[in-house]
Structure formats: structure tokens, C-alpha cells
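sry for the spam today, last one i promise. C-alpha cells for design, 301 residues
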């Protein structure tokens, strides 16, 4: 699925040839990576083929301080995902974070606060695109969740095929939008319902639950909770199990299961964008975002 056309100059500008990862220009071995292991990336996304697992790439999110999903970051993630999808040497991706303690703080609030409708529309299009790209990926996508993962970070995790969460009580995960005075869109809701069931999702969404690892495992929002230093190795071994399945059969099955949910958005993407722009532009919502952003600042003392 190609990136949607109609991206504005800012986003198109980000589609420039990639920034070189030091010592690892596109297609050439990264320094110290051994022969034939190529690593590529962009300022905020590092993609390293896993030297221990043929056909597996580790995608590290590195948009400090909190991997908030800004428009630039979303665009770089989309470019990396598209490149991996198009490179037939890859069969699986492990998505993880390079920001200590944070998987992703979710959507970048500054992309939705005090922004004009045209920007909000462009931003939301990119949010939709990231979800569709991950959720419908032909690759095996495993979330190695090594930090807190609220809202959009939780959506990214839920869009993976499998979720491994580090057993650190600070690393809560959930769709906490109501705590900000906003709401999760229907397709966020759909993915949560598909994962943890209707009643658990209804409760979690209304109360903005952020589940600590033990509760996240119990409710099923993650598949495994392991010691922090075993997240990556566990993700690798799960990847090996999934890659033992013939790709074509697995991909057709994934599509069979996920297409109805994705279609609900695909059939109304523009309406969803317009709904988002109308909702986020409301004075009351802007006020909620302002209060929440102030709280984040005050928290720092
Ligand atoms: C229809 C409307 C949309 C519906 C869908 C919405 C989905 C979303 O994802 S909304 C975003 C939800 N995210 C959150 O509620 C998380 C908010 N952040 C936090 O709770 C914390 O920052 C943390 C637990 C993720 C990390 O805490 P800590 O390590 O203490 O770091 P700080 O809180 O000091 O944050 C550092 C820095 O980053 C800014 N920031 C944090 N989160 C976001 C964000 N989501 N968007 C933009 N900026 C964020 C924070 O304000 C600090 O900024 P500075 O003060 O300038 O350093």
C-alpha cells in the first residue's frame, strides 16, 4: 500500500533520500555489523537487520525524549515500514524503543494543540496511515515494549501481531484518552475490542485505564511479560516461531482476521479526518489539551 498521495510539502520533503546512519549508508554493512548486514534509517528511526536472525529487522524508535508521534516521526516510521515491506529479504520486524523507559508517549499533543485545521487534517492522515501500515503489514510485527505505552503508543503496540512487555511497574499500557478529556477514535476502540474483548475494552476506554504489566497480561492487552533484559531476546524467539509458518498462509490468515476492522476505516478515511478536525478544533477540547500539557509541565516541578 503506497503512501497516500496528497501529502503536503512538509511531508513530501521528509520523503527525501534518507539520512545516512553513521557508517551504514543504505545497502552497505554498518560499521561493526559484519558482512552483508545492512542497516538503514533516518534521524528518528533506526532499522537494523538482526544479525542473529535472517530476514528479521529491528526498528528502533528514537524520537527523544518520549517518542511522541510527531508528523515528522510518523513520516519516518512510514518510510521505514514501506522500505521493509518492499525489501523481500525481510519477513519480520521487531518494533522497540531507544528512549529509556518509554515505548511511545502516543500522539504528539503539540500536533493537535493550537494548530490550524489543514495541519490537523494532514497529521491525522499520517496517524491513519501508520496504523494501516502496521496493522495490515504482510510482515510479522512484534512489539518489544520496553517502556510506558499510553494512547497512540498503545495503538502501535496493539497493531503488532504479538506484544512482549518488560516487567517494570512503570511501563503501563492502555488507551488513556479520556484522562486527557478526549476520546479514542472508533478504530482505536475496534483494535482494543478485538484484543481484550468488548466489556474489558468498554471499561478500559471509559476509565482511561493504563494497565501495569501484570494487569496488562491478565486482561490480554499484551501476550507476554518478561524481565526487562529479556524483552528483545523473547521477541526474537517468538519471531522465530511465527516465521516457521509459511508466509503466504500466515499473511492470508492475518488479512482474513484484520481486513474487516481495517475496512471500517478505509471506507471512511476522509470522513474520519473531517470528524477528527471538527472534534480537535472545539474550544473545549483545545482547553482540555492545554490543561493536560500544563499538567505535564507542572509535573516536572
Ligand atoms: C481525537 C483526539 C485524538 C485521539 C487519540 C489520541 C491519542 C494520543 O496518543 S493523545 C497523547 C496521550 N499521551 C499521554 O497521555 C502521555 C503523556 N505523557 C506522559 O504521561 C509522560 O510524558 C510520560 C509518562 C510519557 C513520560 O514521563 P517523563 O519521562 O516524566 O517525561 P515528561 O513528562 O517530563 O515529558 C518529557 C517532555 O515530553 C513532553 N511530552 C510528553 N508526552 C507528550 C506527548 N504525548 N505529546 C507531546 N509532548 C509530550 C512533555 O511535555 C515534556 O516536554 P518538555 O516540558 O518541553 O520537556
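last one done:
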Amino acid at each position: 500500500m503506497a503512501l497516500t498521495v496528497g501529502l503536503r510539502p512538509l511531508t513530501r520533503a521528509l520523503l527525501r533520500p534518507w539520512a545516512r546512519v553513521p557508517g551504514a549508508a543504505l545497502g552497505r554493512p554498518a560499521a561493526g555489523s559484519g558482512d552483508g548486514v545492512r542497516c538503514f534509517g533516518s534521524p528518528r528511526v533506526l532499522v537494523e537487520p538482526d544479525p542473529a536472525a535472517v530476514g528479521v529487522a529491528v526498528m528502533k524508535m528514537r524520537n527523544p525524549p518520549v517518542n511522541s508521534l510527531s508528523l515528522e516521526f510518523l513520516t519516518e516510521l512510514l518510510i521505514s515500514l514501506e522500505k521493509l515491506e518492499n525489501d523481500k529479504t525481510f519477513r519480520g520486524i521487531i518494533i522497540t524503543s531507544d528512549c529509556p523507559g518509554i515505548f511511545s508517549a502516543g500522539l504528539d499533543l503539540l500536533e493537535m494543540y493550537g494548530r490550524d485545521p489543514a495541519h490537523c487534517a494532514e497529521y491525522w492522515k499520517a496517524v491513519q496511515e501508520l496504523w494501516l501500515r502496521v496493522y495490515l503489514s504482510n510482515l510479522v510485527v512484534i512489539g518489544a515494549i520496553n517502556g510506558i505505552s499510553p494512547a497512540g503508543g498503545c495503538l502501535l503496540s496493539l497493531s503488532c501481531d504479538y506484544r512482549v512487555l518488560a516487567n517494570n511497574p512503570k511501563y503501563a499500557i492502555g488507551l488513556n484518552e479520556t484522562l486527557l478529556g478526549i476520546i479514542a477514535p472508533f478504530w482505536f476502540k475496534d483494535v482494543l475490542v478485538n484484543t481484550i474483548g468488548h466489556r474489558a475494552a468498554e471499561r478500559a476506554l471509559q476509565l482511561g485505564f493504563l494497565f501495569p504489566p501484570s494487569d496488562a497480561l491478565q486482561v490480554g492487552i499484551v501476550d507476554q511479560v518478561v524481565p526487562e533484559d529479556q524483552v528483545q531476546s523473547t521477541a526474537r524467539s517468538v519471531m522465530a516461531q511465527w516465521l516457521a509458518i509459511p508466509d503466504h498462509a500466515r499473511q492470508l490468515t492475518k488479512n482474513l482476521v484484520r481486513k474487516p476492522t481495517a475496512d471500517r476505516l478505509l471506507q471512511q478515511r476522509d470522513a474520519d479526518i473531517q470528524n477528527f478536525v471538527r472534534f480537535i478544533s472545539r474550544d473545549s477540547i483545545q482547553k482540555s489539551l492545554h490543561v493536560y500539557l500544563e499538567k505535564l509541565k507542572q509535573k516536572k516541578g
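Strands lie at 40-42, 45-49, 56-61, 92-97, 101-102, 140-145, 147-150, 162-166, 173-174, 224-226. ok im logging off now
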